[in-house]
């Protein structure tokens, strides 16, 4: 094998392997869900949902796990624990929140739905 062909083959393999971890458009796990920015996204989702929620106030308890997706901005898919406060006491439930954050850091709640299991 000629040295040029060998180097080209090695460079091609390195390029392919370096992109294996970050797939544009694919959901990737968030390693640290206690990161301040991730908690801000979760808090935004709960507060945005709470504004349209009829009944007792909804408050963020914790971020259980999360994923991010790089598009023209970032989609966050977070599993959160949130509690209603009032009535017969505090009741925490799990929810899946999807938030889109554009390149100017403007956030939009895409969906917020209750989960039966985590």
UniProtKB/TrEMBL annotation:
Cystatin domain segment(s): 22-115
Which source organism?
Linum trigynum
Q: Which InterPro entries match?
A: Cystatin_dom, Cystatin_sf
Protein name from the UniProt record: Cystatin domain-containing protein
Task: State if Signal is listed as a keyword.
Answer: yes
Signal peptide stretch: 1-22
Q: Which SUPFAM superfamilies match?
A: Cystatin/monellin (SSF54403)
Q: Name one GO molecular function term.
A: cysteine-type endopeptidase inhibitor activity
Which Gene3D superfamilies is this protein grouped with? 3.10.450.10
**What is any Pfam family matched here?**
SQAPI
Print the keywords alphabetically: Protease inhibitor, Signal, Thiol protease inhibitor
């Amino acid at each position: 094998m000629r040295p040029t062909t060998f180097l080209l083959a090695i460079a091609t393999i390195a390029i392919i392997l370096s992109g294996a971890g970050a797939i544009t458009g694919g959901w990737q796990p968030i390693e640290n869900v206690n990161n301040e920015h991730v908690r801000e996204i979760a808090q935004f989702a709960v507060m945005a949902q709470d504004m349209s929620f009829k009944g007792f106030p909804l408050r963020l308890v914790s971020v259980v796990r999360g994923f991010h997706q790089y598009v023209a901005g970032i989609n966050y898919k977070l599993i959160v624990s949130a509690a209603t406060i009032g009535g017969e006491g505090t009741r925490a439930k799990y929810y899946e929140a999807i938030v889109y954050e554009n390149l100017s850091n403007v956030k939009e709640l895409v969906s917020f739905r209750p989960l039966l299991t985590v």
